[in-house]
Here is the input.
Amino acid sequence: MRYLISRAAAALLFLCIFAGTSLAATDYDQLFRQSSDLMVQGDLEGSLKLLKQVPAPAPGDDGSAFVSSRMQAARIYSSQGTPEAAMEACREVLKLFPDNSEARNLLTALEKQQKPRWHTILADCLRFLPALAKGATMTLLLVFCTMLISPLGGLLIALGRISTFRPVSALCWFIIWFFRGTPLLLQLFFIYYGLPALGITLAPLTAAVIGLGLNYSAYLGEIIRGAIQSIDHGQMEAAKAIGMTYGQAMRRVIIPQTYKRLMPPIGNEFIALIKDTALVSTIAMVELMRSADQLFNTYFNITALVLAALIYLVLTTIFTFIFEKIEYRAGIYEQR
Amino acid sequence: MSSAKEPLLKLTGITKHFKNLTAVNGINLEVQPGEKLVIIGPSGSGKSTLLRSINLLEEIDDGTITFEGHQVGYVTRLGKRHLDKPHQICALRAEIGMVFQHFHLFPHMTVLGNVMEGPLTVQKKTREEARQTAVDMLAKVGLSDKRDVFPATLSGGQKQRVAIARALAMRPKLMLFDEPTSALDPELVGEVFDTIHSLADEGMTMLIVTHHMGFARELADRVIFMESGRFLAEGTPQEFFCKSQDNERIRGFLNRLL
Here is the structure.
């Protein structure tokens, strides 16, 4: 690949030089010829060195040799992937011959490829950031509300499922069956658009928190139940043997031992939650995803989406670290 | 033991079925205050089930349990037997200490926390009182220096001594030991036996299930041999372990162990 490029560049430059030499002052014919020979051999460095030997034009000189040499150098630099040096060569020409259109055009073309891209992206970022930050705040609000509700709901559902009282365990089984078995999107639609038909109208935020809270309670319920049942049965017996009630044994002995086991799956769920909040954009909530979508549709600019993706990544990364810390803390008693 | 004294624990006709197996089959037993009773027998003979039935970790199918002269654990409603109310059951368990084969210490609490837990949560004592009790009990089992470590750092023998301290902290009137040394390395058995011995010297009433015949002979006031859910023989250690043991089953069992 490199070989092909250098060959193509060499051929192109050779043509330019050919055209240039006929215009150049005769003193430099020899130098230009050597330079193009080196170029054909692939020695771009050597060629550039020769070209630089052409001095700035003396008074009375038309400067055509100087212009040709610098423009050739600029093309070589540009083909080598060092546009800064190419632009420098163009500016050198323009300093003495401000009207030289060739140098002007090349410089403009190079500048367009360079600085302005970062400029516009940065400007876009600054323009989009306030709206996205507002959206991200709403996303975080939803996440925190759900993080408060779902572990409590999950614990109740888990204890209900374990209960030997049939109606309670059946009810909890049903809740899990329903909320795990239907799409979250559908549940949100039902709560926001469906409940008004039954005379219950909810604000978008309320509907979103209820929907997310119920859905995640169902998932966490199963996770917590699994963790509780994974604790050695002997722990419950030992607690009972010193006279504890079922409730005391659960609160003091069993549930504290589940924390370490709960952290990895719950961390997973909460990271999924951060992304699942995007679904509430369908029930008239403006959160991070919706903000990004609005910006994208207004400006047709992909930067908004990239920025939103970065914000999601930052949030999930922070959560990952927090949960790793908590997991370590929760299991500290197991260390020998 | 004089029979005039009221027994601390009296079992009559205790029966427990598991699916199609009768683990305990109509056991009658009286335990006098201060008595040390050792139950031996092959595995699967129902020793552990009997022990667990006494503090209601196992719900029996028939029979009565009388503790300090009161019938406990079960009530009859409309001619059907039910487990008593939870707080009654908890109250009974609080008076009976139990030590398990696999210790079952609470791994998320320190050694002191384990021993404090009963007085604190069940007896609702203040933190200071519970702490004092726990400190005393740990001193008794010789583990005062291990107060603040987590159980994971202890040896098996130390764990079992903490478990004994945890049971003692409730000031029980009866101690049940369910194979307390079976999960221990041989060199750790001694320290646990010494602890149980010193407890016996203080006059604690104990029911011990064990496979260590030497220990049974040394400690027991009475030895019971159990097989297939029934008591096959009982007597003083002298009678039981004498060479002229005439019960062929027991002789065979003892010969395999000694």
Chain A has two domains: 2-113, 117-334. Residues 94 and 104 of chain A are 7 Å apart (CA to CA). Chain A has a mean pLDDT of 87. Chain A touches chain B through 22 residues (CB under 8 Å).
